[in-house]
Amino acid sequence: MDVAVILPRSLKFRMTLVVILLVLAATMIVTWVALVLAERDMKAIIGNQQFALLSSSAAQIDAQLNAKKLLLASLAEDLPPAATASAADMLEFVNRHPIARREFRNLVIYNRQGDLLHTQGQGVATLDTSASLRAYLAKVLADGKAIVSPPYKSVMTGAPAVVIMQPVKDAEGRATMMLGGSLDLADSSMLEQVAGQRSGRTGYSFIFTTRGILVQHPDRALLLEDVTKRDNLNLGMQRALEGFEGWTEATGQDGTPSIYSYKRLRSADWIVGARYPVDEAFAPMIAMRHKGMLAAAAFAAMAGVMAWLAVRAMLRPLSLLRQHIGEIRNGSADIGVLQPCRPDEIGDLAGAFHELMAEREAAQKAVRDSEALISSILERAPDAFVSCAADGAITNWNEAAERTFGWRRAEALGRDIAELIVPPAMRGAHQAGMQAFGEGRMGRLINARVRITALHRDGHEVPVELSVGSIRHGGAYYATAFLHDITERVAFEERLTQLARIDPLTGIANRLYFEEVLQQAVVRARRNRMPLALAYLDIDRFKSINDSLGHAAGDAVLCEFATRLGANVRAADTVARIAGDEFVIIFEQVDQADEAARMAQKIVAAIRVPFTVDGAPLLVTTSIGIALLDGDDLAPAALVARADAALYQAKRQGRDGYALAP
Ligand SMILES: Nc1nc2c(ncn2[C@@H]2O[C@H](COP(=O)(O)OP(=O)(O)OP(=O)(O)O)[C@@H](O)[C@H]2O)c(=O)[nH]1
After folding, report:
1. Which domain holds residue 463?
2. Which residue CA neighbors atom 2 of ligand 1 most closely?
3. Is residue 109 a part of any domain in this protein?
4. Does residue 580 line the site of ligand 1, with CB under 6 A?
5. pLDDT at position 1 over 50
6. Is the CB of 360 under 6 A from ligand 1?
7. Where does the PAS domain lie (predicted)?
8. How many domains does the chain have?
């Protein structure tokens, strides 16, 4: 059988899943971190590259602007004074310098006050006479060198333009005028070079002044726009206006994240900028990322398969262990198959199982032995051992129970214990006990030894000493009882009781018995208003019999005396010897003094008949004192005292007679 089939699939599945997820997560994280680092490096490379390109464009523009400034300076030196006054002279001057016509759209001459004296060239820019122009001209005069003007819209053509003004100095070196050359921003070969410097497909370059006026932009409509007035001026532009040079990432007007580079010109207050949308710049990077992630996923899937195979192989010993345990459970193998055989955790586990199972088997054997011992002890116990379920059905019945109650074990098992051995008079108490047991309230009864009577099969009652308990077996509780048959003990006790009340010499009742009977007779007489008489007897001069014939002869006389008393009273009367030669007779139903006297006379006469002692006749007489139960004093002791007093009276009257208590 394939062990993989019996191994819980979920364990293997979960382990494989965990490995796959861990590998996937680790691969993804490593890939992602690597890509992020690569992207950062690549971004820096692209940014630096773009900034380098931009710097070279800026240098070119600087060179060209400087060249134009130099050209203007040389023209200014060459400018004849007449040119400032005559248009024809001016034309002639320009014609002499064809390079000026090529480099500038238009040439202009201003006086120190800022008035336009001449203009020459294709009708483009003439500066307006605004305050900003005047400030610019003043600065040119003050610095004494060529300066590029702020951009402006030509008054004549409406085209965006700038002008470079050069002071014209007279022989004394004073700046008397200014020679200016204008540049059409929308149509400048110099600036178009910048426009040609574009990164990628959608990137572009642009120029703006340090005050934020656009001087060059692929969208001509934006020229001369003041970017500082934009609502959402991008962060790069803002930083560039504050003096930043270099590259940075920012989001453009259209919301596209881009790499922006900025470089300031030295020859003019201009900033050259370039924009390269990130999407395009990183297109290869993004493609690489997708490929990287795909590769990572594929790797994780592969790792998953490998993990599954590895888990399968590693769990094989565990599967075998499980199989062995199953075989041990169904009995087709013994615990020897669990012997530790591997030096690893599974080997330890098998070893631990083996130990546990061995301990369990030993414990089970010990329990079985102990159960067998207990069963054997119970079976051979001298006392009856009986157990029953909560419903009373008998579950145990040992040999002693068979002897004590007469039922064979096979007959007793399963029968209701109440109907089998509980006498009818005791069934109420038995039911209450069983109910207490059923409700778990048997604590009070446990271990208490009580004397009860049980019922024998043949119907006679068996006195037993009962001690109850409870045992738990197979999840249920059973009431247990040891019943010690005390029939013999009870008989013995009865005999003892009897013996304690009998005078051993004469075999008649002794003082103890007399006192008990008198007590009961007085109670009975009082309750039923029945008559009662007590006779107190003493053998006359008994001491002399003893002294003359010996103690044995005295004993024989005592025995004969007792016999004669018994023979002369009714069965209901009680004769007792209460001391040496003193006897009493309780006459029930004698209340007449006459009748009592008659009884006394009868006894005196019966004793007077000679005794035979040691074959010889012996004359024995007795004196009797009689007292009747007095209505005033009903205490038994008082009755005895009165009879005793009457006896004393009889002795004084000469013995061999009787006297009645007053
Ligand atoms: N043989 C024998 N003698 C006993 C027994 N118990 C008591 N005696 C004797 O009985 C005698 C009782 O004597 P008393 O009743 O005092 O005197 P008494 O000789 O009978 O004279 P009165 O009673 O005055 O007639 C004593 O000598 C006792 O030792 C007994 O069990 N056996």
Report:
1. 381-488
2. 554
3. yes
4. yes
5. no
6. no
7. 370-423
8. 4
Q: Does residue 504 share a domain with residue 462?
A: no
Cβ of 554 less than 6 Å from ligand 1 = yes
If one residue of 539, 546, 548 were mutated to test the ligand 1 pocket, choosing by the most ligand atoms within 8 A of its CB, it would be 546
Domain closes at, from 488, 515, 549: 488
**Do residue 221 and residue 90 come from a single domain?**
yes
- Gap from CA of 640 to ligand 1 centroid (Å): 20
Pair 508, 502: CB distance under 8 Å: yes
pLDDT at 369: 92
Residue 5 lies in a domain: no
Q: Which atom of ligand 1 is nearest to the CA of 538?
A: 23
- Quickly list H helices, 381-510: 399-405, 409-412, 417-421, 427-438, 487-499
Ligand 1 contacts CB of residue 656 (under 6 A): no
> Do 61 and 210 fall into the same domain?
yes
Going by alpha carbons, the residue nearest to atom 27 of ligand 1 is 543
Q: Classify residue 228: in a domain, yes or no.
A: yes
Same domain assignment for residues 585 and 656: yes
Q: Give nearest CA residue, ligand 1 atom 28.
A: 543
- Please indicate, yes or no, whether residues 253 and 276 belong to a single structural domain of this protein: yes
Same domain, 64 and 211: yes
Query: Could you report the per-residue pLDDT of 557-611, keeping only the tens digit for each?
Result: 999 999 999 999 999 899 999 999 999 999 987 767 888 899 999 999 999 999 9
Question: Same structural domain for residues 154 and 54?
Answer: yes
Q: Is the pLDDT of residue 124 over 50?
A: no
Token pair 């009903």: residue: 634
In tens, the pLDDT along 423-471 reads 999 999 889 888 888 777 766 566 678 899 999 999 999 999 999 888 8
Question: Per the domain annotation, does 393 fall within a domain?
Answer: yes
- Cβ–ligand 1 distance for 174 under 6 Å, the answer no
DSSP assignment letter at 502: B
C-beta separation of 564 from 539 below 8 A = no
- Tally the residues of the chain: 662
Does ligand 1 lie within 6 Å of residue 473's CB atom?
Answer: no
Q: Ligand 1 atom closest to Cα of 544?
A: 19
Nearest CA to ligand 1 atom 14: 543
Give yes or no for residue 191 having a pLDDT over 80.
no
Task: Tell me the DSSP string of 350-365.
Answer: HHHHHHHHHHHHHHHH
Looking at ligand 1, which residue's alpha carbon is closest to its atom 16? Answer: 543
Q: Whose CA is nearest to atom 7 of ligand 1?
A: 580
> Which residue, judged by its Cα, is nearest atom 8 of ligand 1?
580
β pairing state of 582-588 and 532-539 = antiparallel
pLDDT digits (tens, 9 = 90+) for 54-108: 898 899 889 999 999 999 998 888 887 777 667 777 778 878 888 887 888 888 8
pLDDT tens digits, one per residue of 243-278 = 999 999 998 888 888 999 999 999 999 999 999 888
Mean pLDDT of the chain: 86
Determine the distance separating the centroid of ligand 1 and the alpha carbon of 635, expressed in angstroms. Answer: 28
Q: Determine whether the shortest distance from the Cβ of 578 to ligand 1 is under 6 A.
A: no
Whether the Cβ atoms of residue 661 and residue 627 lie closer than 8 Å to each other: yes
Q: Are residues 159 and 108 in the same domain?
A: yes
Residue 621 has pLDDT above 80, yes or no: yes
Closest by CA to 109, choosing from 135, 157, 72, is 72
Q: What stretches of 97-204 show up as alpha helix (H) in DSSP?
A: 98-103, 131-143, 189-196
- Residue for token pair 């019922």: 455
Question: What CATH number is associated with residue 416?
Answer: 3.30.450.20
